[in-house]
Design goal:
The protein is of the alpha/beta class. It has two domains: 230 residues, Alpha-beta prism (UDP-n-acetylglucosamine1-carboxyvinyl-transferase, Chain); 212 residues, Enolpyruvate transferase domain (UDP-n-acetylglucosamine1-carboxyvinyl-transferase, Chain). 29% of the residues lie in helices and 29% in strands. It has 13 helices and 27 strands. The structure holds shikimate-3-phosphate and phosphoenolpyruvate (PEP). The site of phosphoenolpyruvate has 9 residues, from α3.
Length: 450
């Protein structure tokens, strides 16, 4: 049911999300079903395409990023049914059998699609591929995957010494390496592991801190041979295995749940139940930080679904206090920092976020954009080279803000607007569909005027 104080204004292809807090105030109530996990959705489509036989994916995220992955792997020869149902079927083509596409592969806005796919393409002997993305993706750094792939013997060309897309790839027989990654990045780790699937010998990736481990879990489920040394944050893949199609059940995305967890915690009088949330420990940094800030979040009905831990999360409004977010927890909450910045605006005291320089090379420079847009609303946020300093407790006022076409920024600003006086307009809000196509309708359903 649509309520008048959350509405969409559409002008040509651009959507503005208008949030007008009623004078009587508002609170949030209800049960929320969140979309499927984006990281797991990409990996299920890719491994399904590389496997022998059929893969069935339940609960795939029907957002724009997985659509880009599906489009690329269709062009590479996998049969993937239209992404319009809860159950997606992929007829795999078998490892090493991808076709040479007739046109450029376009990863759209999705860093995960482009970086993981590069590892797969580089190891497809004798075939030539070209890859690109939208203007945001074409400005994001690719050397972090190109360099280790070149060490394995890959042939890759592109702008600025092959550090920026568009890129061209000549598939080669690769050799296993031991790679000490300078950054904790699941995209780098996964790219190298995927390249290692068909490389000669063993391929090892060692990270400075643990990043999300969905690739490791799913590769093993599809039949790859892997060994994990969690003390050293090291994973080894043994080349030459065969992958077999599987049934994958995709849990809800904790990165999408994060918007409701913060909304429920900061909007007075709220109580929300967010159902079916993936709570893989490599992703739950957000829960640890919100608990540190004094949020009231209970995990209910904890269970394991197809190898991934899942729970329902109940959040109630509470008074938050500031905290420090830095160090090894950063990769376990990297995509949640924009919405954590919103939580910090409504917390007592000054929150400091450090070691998060990776945010500068996401879909937008999330440090600069969150600071500038929250400050337009009246917050006191200071940019640090590698994070943010947020003085909590200043009231916000509705103004015009911009998503910079970044989905996480659009949704974070919408949640901030729930506690701002007057009318907030979030321009270019259509970006939310990258990871959360139903964000606005869910927001409309849970908002109640007091
Ligand atoms: O592997 C993945 O699915 C992802 C890894 C993270 O990126 P980095 O590996 O660049 O940190 C994250 O920000 C992105 O949304 C998804
Ligand atoms: C950074 C993100 O995704 P990607 O790197 O896949 O574009 C994200 O979803 O926040």
């Amino acid at each position: 049911m649509s309520v008048p104080f959350v509405r969409l204004k559409v002008v040509e292809n651009q959507q503005s999300l208008v949030i007008e807090k009623p004078v009587s105030g508002l609170s949030l109530h209800g049960n929320i079903q969140i979309p499927g996990d984006k990281s797991i959705s990409h990996r299920a489509l890719m491994l399904g395409a590389l496997a022998q036989g059929e893969t069935q994916i339940q609960g795939l995220l029907l957002g724009e990023d997985p659509r880009s992955t599906a489009e690329c792997f269709r062009a590479l020869g996998a049969e993937i049914c239209p992404l319009n149902t809860e159950l997606v079927r992929v007829q795999g083509i078998g490892l090493g059998n991808l076709l040479e596409p007739l046109d450029v592969l376009n990863a759209g806005n999705s860093g995960t699609t482009l970086r993981l796919m590069l590892g797969i393409l580089a190891s497809h002997l004798g075939r030539f591929f070209t890859v690109t993305g939208d203007s945001s993706l074409r400005s994001r750094p690719m050397s972090r995957v190109v360099k280790p792939l070149q060490e394995m013997g890959a042939k890759i060309w592109g702008r600025k010494d092959a550090s920026l897309a568009p890129l061209a790839v000549q598939g080669k027989q690769l050799k296993g390496i031991i790679y000490h990654s300078p950054i904790a990045s699941a995209q780098v780790k996964s790219c190298i592991l995927l390249a290692g699937l068909m490389a000669e010998g063993e391929t090892t990736v060692i990270e400075p801190a643990l990043s999300r481990d969905h690739s490791e879990r799913m590769l093993q489920a599809f039949g790859a041979k892997l060994s994990v040394d969690s003390e050293r944050n090291s994973v080894t893949i043994f080349g030459g295995a065969k992958l077999t199609g599987q049934t994958v059940i995709v849990p809800g995305d904790i990165s999408s749940a994060a918007f409701w967890l913060v909304a429920g915690a900061i909007v007075p009088g709220s109580e929300l139940l967010v159902a079916n949330v993936g709570v893989n420990p490599t992703r739950t940094g957000i829960l640890e930080v919100l608990e540190m800030m004094g949020a009231d979040i209970q995990q209910e009905n904890q269970r394991i679904v197809a190898g991934e831990p899942v729970a329902d999360l109940r959040v109630k409004y509470s008074n938050l206090k500031s905290c420090e977010i830095a160090g090894d927890i950063i990769p376990r909450l990297i995509d949640e920092i924009p919405i954590l910045a919103v939580a910090a605006v409504f917390a007592e005291g000054t929150t400091v976020i450090r070691n998060a320089e990776e945010l500068r090379v996401k879909e937008s420079d999330r440090i600069a954009v969150m600071a500038s847009q929250l400050n337009l609303m009246g917050a006191k946020v200071t940019e640090l080279p590698d994070g943010l300093e947020i003085a909590g407790g200043t009231p916000l006022t509705g103004v015009d803000v911009d998503s910079y076409t970044d989905h996480r920024i659009a949704m974070s600003l919408a949640i901030a607007a729930l506690n701002a006086q007057g009318i907030t307009t979030i321009n270019r809000a259509e970006a939310a569909a990258i990871s959360y196509p139903n964000f606005t309708s869910t927001l409309q359903q849970i908002c109640q005027s007091n």
